[in-house]
Design brief:
mainly alpha, 79% helix
Amino acid sequence: MDDILELDPRVLYETADDIGFYCETQTQVMADYLSKMGALQSEWDDDQTIGPLLEEVRTLKSRIESIMNDIKREYPRFFREKARLIESRPEDIG
């Protein structure tokens, strides 16, 4: 049984791009959510609950942004480095 593993660096580059896109999307989801929650503030009758709720959403947004930034900083670079390693391998002769 002659199995040949084919390594395609394009898949790794696409994975790196997908990770970056995912992180940007998640960051935007939280920004939109906070914006929509803030817009409800003028309609909210209970000032004692909206303030703490908005602060909790701000904290969550900040934590998610931090996590997404960490992911964007590390994982796309990792996959791109692996793709470059594959690209730099000598061609199989024979």
